[in-house]
Amino acid sequence: MSYNMDLNxxxxxxxxxxxxxxxxxxxxxxxxKAAKKIVHQTHPDKSGLDKDYFFFFSKAYKLxxxxxxxxxxxxIKQRDDKDYDAEDVEEFETENExxxxxxxxxxxxxxxxxxxxxxxxxxxxxxxxxxWLKDDNCIELPKCxxxxxxxxxxSAHRETMVLVKHDIQDFYTSTGHNLDGVESYGSGLFSKLxxxxxxxxxxxxxxxxxESGNMKHQSYDAALEERKTITAxxxxxxxxNMIKQQLLLADKEANLRAFKLAKETTKNEEKQTVWWSKFKxxxxxx
Length: 286
Description:
This protein has helices at 14-21, 29-41, 44-47, 51-72, 86-105, 109-120, 130-134, 147-160, 198-203, 220-231, 236-285.
């Protein structure tokens, strides 16, 4: 175990944590027990290491545990290093209730709340349309004085469009239930989404068939031969391999999605704890 390792859990992805605990991709409950032993071995009393190592491995283990629960879809008894009893819960609830009552009576509640919200709210940088909605470039229209100018603009726009090739996809997956973004949007019968995406519904235009996209054939027979090749059904073995790869990909995406949600949940819990602490500090200082 390295003594100079990065202890910031935010810098680790799912594969990194699996490597950290030497776990296979499809780890089992037995693997989880082995990972928990590693966490216990990093305890300062046993390892002599700084407590930050124990906190780091504990966070990493909890992320793996959340992914395991999400993936297994079964009720698993919560395993915590600390035992809680009813008195702890009642004391926590009573403390928050008293703080809430103080907040309600505070004359500068809006100021306190806005200050905390600015500093504590979580932003998913990779998602959302905040910058796009604020940008006026997407709604600027070209300045065309004559129909000829407009035709030139449309022609230039068509030349920049690219037709994207997609392999065979499952029809039943086109319901739009996936948490991640899909690659194609449209209002057609077999589209992934019925224009449920704001940005694509606003910007999407009909993609024309360009002359450069037409198939070139030296003879009629060559065209028929190529058409037979394209429309020929795939072999059973090839289809089975494709289905297997699709299932593996779907499983991997589910694990990565679960890991991402687990990270966000952990951050949210930490933010909530700091939120109440900051609220109390600000109220005491006013």
